[in-house]
């Protein structure tokens, strides 16, 4: 009945309900408001004064409380703030101006100095290099005779503990871990003896939730059963599973007991292993960890890995619109199937529509024994091109079968056989050709940030050829090398370099279709010229494309605001038929970059130095640089 009445009261008269609530909040039975105290520290400065203020910051005195009754607590907090710095016998006086402000005068007294330091690692980790590096990097080993500081001790102890978890010493313990303080003789004795125990090795992998064969997921692991445990290998395994595209969510964890963690505090605190002894040798506190019992180990020092995954959607559709000065407005449609069966086969299809080019491409992937490293693929595509500025009209269809290798050094190698049929008109040349083209390619991309890297590079190498010996309509050997670098000088200066070299050897260049000839000019080559309008010409001025290609670019960028960069650049290049061009078309200009969530938006204004018809040309593009 009481609950019913209260609900009716609030619903029927909201003003009265608010009044009743206010009276309840301010009733005498409730606590009085409290405020954080403001501390004026005298007698000590810098880190000591800061730590005293941090210790007293959480002290709150109720409105009706007497301030003097809090003097003892203030003194104790000040003592606690000084101990991490080796001061255990300070003189402290406290003076309250009011309950919100206190003045503390401190004479820290003579510091405690370290008489001896015993620090060592025992067990198999004694010869494990990262542990030795941790000992060598710690100032604790050289602090004998100096004022006691707790932070180096705790830092080294935390580092050794972290290394044990990272490197599989799951039975590790501290056989000795204490700071023994004798204030009466101003002395401290440090003992930190880490006993690593046996290093664990990887055990079995247990998979749950996968629609892909478990043996395939196990082969993607960067470790083998019985390899020495490394937490970084567990992270790499999770990354590989994510790169497969098969799963919406992934969890890869060693099967270990739960461990608690402490929330970091801005205060510099005393080590929990520190104990203070009086003149009779009796300890005032027993918080050191000498008596920790070793956990019972299994019969084999192995740790199983649990993999829990959630399948990705079987069908994914994407649409997008874009614009660049090379092709104008364009629309993209994508239909991707990340997995088709329990082997992990995948199928991707993309349709790109623009005024001068319409392209449909697809790729069917068949992963091999190690899906993260090797796969077979079939690629197919249709492309219709009608570009009046480059005098190119063609319809191309192709199918290729290939093998891909992904190496540990980030290089990707492809070996393929492509069949291409192309019906084309290039300038005054018309033909229809059927080509069987074997080829090899190598590529590598390295970057520190895919959206807007401050360091990175990309290399692409292609070698392919065709011959009438195996039924092709043309004989040629063709190669192309692309390289791009990004380097920075400080956080505000960025340099971008780009170079492309291409060459073709053939006995009848007229049989080589436009898709395999070289053109240059446009957003990503020689700016200042229209897309693919630099190439050899016939007597009527029609573009024919070249046997060879040479393009280079150098760009300097300077940050001018948070996500805005200004750029200046110079480009040079040409497509030609002799082994060296008569001249390189050159342009220079300035630009602006805005770092959007999907990559930089680029606007460039370039001036060509070798064209009487063009004066300035605007270029626009969006998306990652690699």
TrEMBL record:
Domain TamA POTRA: 39-107
GO biological process: protein secretion
Cited Pfam families: Omp85 (PF01103), POTRA (PF07244), POTRA_TamA_1 (PF17243)
Entry keyword annotation includes Kinase: no
Keywords (A to Z) from UniProt: Cell outer membrane, Membrane, Signal, Transmembrane, Transmembrane beta strand
Keyword Electron transport: no
Biased composition (Low complexity): 262-272
Leader sequence residues: 1-36
Chief site of localization: membrane
Domain Bacterial surface antigen (D15), chain residue ranges per copy: 327-626
GO cellular component, one term: cell outer membrane
POTRA domain segment(s): 200-254
InterPro entries in the record: Bac_surfAg_D15, BamA/TamA_POTRA, D15-like, TamA_POTRA_Dom_1
Subcellular location: Cell outer membrane
Region (Disordered): 257-285
Family: Belongs to the TamA family.
Subunit annotation: Interacts with TamB to form the translocation and assembly module (TAM).
Protein's name in the database: Translocation and assembly module subunit TamA
Organism encoding this protein: Kushneria avicenniae
């Amino acid at each position: 009945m009481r609950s019913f009445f209260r609900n009716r009261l609030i619903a029927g008269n909201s003003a009265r309900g608010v009044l009743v609530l206010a009276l309840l909040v301010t009733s005498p039975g409730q606590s009085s408001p409290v405020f954080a105290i403001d501390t004026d520290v005298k007698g000590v400065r810098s880190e000591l004064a800061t730590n005293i203020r941090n210790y007293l910051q959480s002290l709150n005195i109720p409105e009706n409380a007497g301030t003097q009754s809090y003097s003892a607590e203030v003194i104790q907090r000040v003592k606690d703030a000084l101990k991490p710095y080796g001061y255990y016998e300070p003189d402290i006086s406290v003076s309250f101006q009011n309950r919100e402000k206190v003045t503390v005068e401190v004479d820290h007294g003579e510091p405690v100095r370290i008489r001896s330091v015993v620090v060592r690692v025992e067990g198999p980790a004694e010869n494990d290099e990262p542990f030795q590096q941790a000992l060598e990097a710690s100032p604790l080993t050289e602090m004998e005779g100096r004022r006691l500081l707790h932070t180096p001790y705790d830092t080294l102890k935390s580092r050794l503990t972290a290394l044990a978890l990272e490197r599989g010493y799951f039975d590790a313990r501290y056989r000795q871990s204490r700071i023994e303080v004798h204030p009466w003789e101003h002395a401290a004795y440090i003992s930190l003896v880490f006993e690593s125990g046996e290093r664990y090795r990887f055990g079995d992998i247990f998979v749950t939730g996968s629609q892909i064969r478990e043996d395939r997921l196990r082969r993607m692991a960067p470790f083998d059963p019985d390899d020495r445990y490394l937490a970084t290998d567990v992270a790499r395994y999770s990354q590989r599973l994510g790169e497969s595209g098969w799963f919406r969510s992934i969890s890869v964890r060693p099967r270990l007991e739960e461990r608690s963690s402490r929330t970091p505090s801005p205060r510099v605190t005393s080590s929990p292993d520190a104990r203070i002894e009086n003149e009779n040798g009796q300890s005032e506190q027993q918080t050191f960890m000498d008596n920790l019992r070793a956990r019972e180990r299994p019969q084999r020092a192995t740790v199983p890995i649990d993999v829990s995954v959630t399948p990705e959607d079987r069908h994914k559709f994407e649409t997008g619109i874009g614009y660049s000065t090379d092709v104008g407005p364009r629309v993209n449609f994508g239909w991707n199937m990340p997995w088709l069966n329990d082997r992990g086969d995948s199928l991707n299809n993309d349709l790109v529509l623009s005024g001068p080019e319409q392209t449909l491409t697809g790729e069917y992937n068949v992963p091999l024994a190690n899906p993260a490293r090797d796969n077979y693929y079939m690629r197919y595509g249709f492309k219709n091109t009608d570009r009046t500025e480059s005098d190119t009209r063609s319809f191309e269809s192709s199918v290729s079968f290939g093998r891909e290798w992904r190496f540990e050094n980030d290089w990707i190698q492809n070996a393929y056989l492509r069949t291409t049929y192309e019906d084309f008109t290039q300038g005054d040349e018309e033909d229809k050709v059927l080509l069987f083209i074997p080829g090899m390619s190598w590529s590598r991309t390295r970057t520190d940030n895919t959206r807007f890297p401050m360091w990175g590079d990309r290399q692409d190498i292609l070698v392919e050829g065709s011959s009438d010996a195996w039924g092709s309509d043309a004989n040629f050997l063709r190669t192309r090398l692309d390289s791009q670098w990004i380097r920075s000088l400080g956080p505000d200066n960025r340099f971008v370099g780009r170079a492309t070299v291409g060459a073709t050897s053939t006995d009848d260049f007229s049989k080589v279709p436009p898709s395999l000839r070289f053109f240059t000019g446009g957003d990503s080559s020689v700016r200042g010229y229209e897309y693919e309008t630099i190439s050899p010409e016939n007597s009527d001025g029609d573009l024919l494309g070249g046997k060879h290609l040479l393009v280079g670019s150098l760009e300097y960028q300077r940050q001018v605001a948070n996500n805005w960069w200004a750029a200046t650049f110079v480009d040079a290049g040409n497509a030609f038929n002799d082994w060296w061009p008569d001249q390189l078309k050159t342009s220079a200009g300035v630009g602006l970059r805005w770092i959007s969530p999907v990559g930089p938006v680029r606007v460039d204004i370039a001036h060509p130095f070798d064209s009487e018809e063009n004066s300035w040309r605007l270029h626009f593009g969006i998306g990652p640089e690699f």
